[in-house]
Amino acid sequence: MGESIVIMGGGVIGLSCAFELQSRGSKVTVLEPNNCGGQASGAAAGMLAPYSENVEGPDDFFRLCLDSLRLYPKWQETIKQVSGQTFEYTNSGSLYTAFHQADLLALEGRLLWQRQFGSSGSILSGDELLRLEPLLSKNVQAALYTPEESHVYAPHYVSALEQACRVIGVNIQENLERVEIVQWQQEVLVRSADHRLFSGDKLLVCSGAWAGELASTFGLYIPVHPIRGQICAYECEPAVHPVNHMVFSSQGYLVAKENGTLVCGASEDIAGFDTSVTAKGIERLQRWNKGVFPFLNELVPFHRWAGLRPSTQDGLPLIGPVGGSNESLGSNRSNRSSQSSRVMLAVGHYRNGILLSPVTAKLAADWVYGNSSISPTSGISTTSSSTRSSIRSSTPSSTRSIEAFSPERFGRGLRV
């Protein structure tokens, strides 16, 4: 039996890390204040779309997302097999729409660099575009078609992931109300609201939008805060209103699910930890989506919901170890942290938690087992120490820097 790992947070990131670690031989305990997947994970639209959602260029975050997309076929297959549950995983491809000439020029520039990273995309217009998506507005001049992108039905995916964890022996403790770290340097000790103590060799923090509350515990600036994302869904009979791809615009996205719903998102605002749905937020979605699919003028959303997305100061997640002392770390802080720390953070995934779940699980497990992919300049290796491990891929991963996601990149100490 490997090391015992305590994971704070039972969302998609915490559960994915738990599955991978337990698969490799660790003894894992997941501590969740509420229900597993009850926050941002279960509220997500489930898009696996790194090309469409990273429009600026092939930075480290795009490469991380691309690594995770390439891991997904085997990952989702394994989760289904182990859990005995099924969930939607659809290789629909995507269309990113352009309404003006300036938008089209931007898409052409994006396509140039994306083709260097495995995209077989193309710019479509006129009859060629309408053959793929017949109900698109005639005001759409063109669209960037990316066949490689996919989506999952997030609630069922998270449910299957939780069940897979239980099947392989992960100890999941839910509805704990509150968990607090008692000790993390000499040993790991976490206490729940009912005064139970949970101990382990290492601690993995996957507490999403609530991670910033641990700044004083670690003496580390953790600029993670919640962004409320509001989403709505329409009942759309595929035979009447077929939508064949994920469709993006500069205003948001539309994703058709196998259950006959068309999901539209997302209206974002800063509202603290308030997950209530507002008329203003949903109306914003209704205003722009009719310009993409005119048939939505005739329909009213049957479901509206909101989730809290864990955003960070620079828009990048915090993935990596936290140093074993409060002293300032130098340029080699990642190597020193990974050697001395009992704690790793995997938080701040914002709107990409579903997409990044398999790659984050791999990084967390590699940190525990001392593999090299947590070091500053490596790509993700594609081997695993367990035949049960599900995130092996035959596609070479893109080289990118893990240092970009170091939790200590914002410095130590608290800020007002």
Strands, helices and their partners?
Elements: E1 4-8, H1 12-23, E2 27-31, H2 40-43, E3 47-48, H3 50-53, H4 60-83, E4 89-90, E5 94-98, H5 101-115, E6 122-125, H6 126-132, E7 142-146, E8 150-152, H7 154-167, E9 171-173, E10 179-183, E11 188-192, E12 197-200, E13 202-205, H8 215-218, E14 224-235, E15 246-249, E16 252-256, E17 261-269, H9 279-292, E18 303-312, E19 318-322, H10 333-340, E20 343-347, H11 353-368
Helix pairs in contact: 1-7, 1-11, 4-7, 4-11
Instruction: Find the CATH topology of the largest domain.
Output: FAD/NAD(P)-binding domain
Number of strands: 20
Low-confidence stretches: 325-339, 373-399
Q: For the terminal residues, how far apart are their CA atoms?
A: 43 Å
CATH A-level architecture of the largest domain: 3-Layer(bba) Sandwich
Supply the CATH class of the largest domain: Alpha Beta
InterPro entries: FAD-dep_OxRdtase (IPR006076), FAD/NAD-bd_sf (IPR036188), Gly_oxidase_ThiO (IPR012727)
GO molecular function: glycine oxidase activity
Catalytic activity: glycine + O2 + H2O = glyoxylate + H2O2 + NH4(+)
EC number: 1.4.3.19
Describe this protein's structure:
It comes from Paenibacillus eucommiae. The chain has 416 residues and is α+β, with helices and mostly antiparallel strands. It folds into 2 domains: 4-82 and 154-222 and 313-410, FAD/NAD(P)-binding domain (3-Layer(bba) Sandwich), CATH 3.50.50; 91-149 and 225-312, D-Amino Acid Oxidase, subunit A, domain 2 (D-Amino Acid Oxidase, Chain A, domain 2). The protein contains 11 helices and 20 strands. It has an 8-stranded mixed beta sheet. Strands 9-2-1-13-20-19 form a 6-stranded mixed beta sheet. Helix 1 runs parallel beside helix 11 (353-368), helix 4 crosses helix 7 and helix 4 (60-83) crosses helix 11. The chain starts with a strand and ends in a 48-residue tail after the last helix. Residues 325-339 and 373-399 have low confidence and may be disordered.
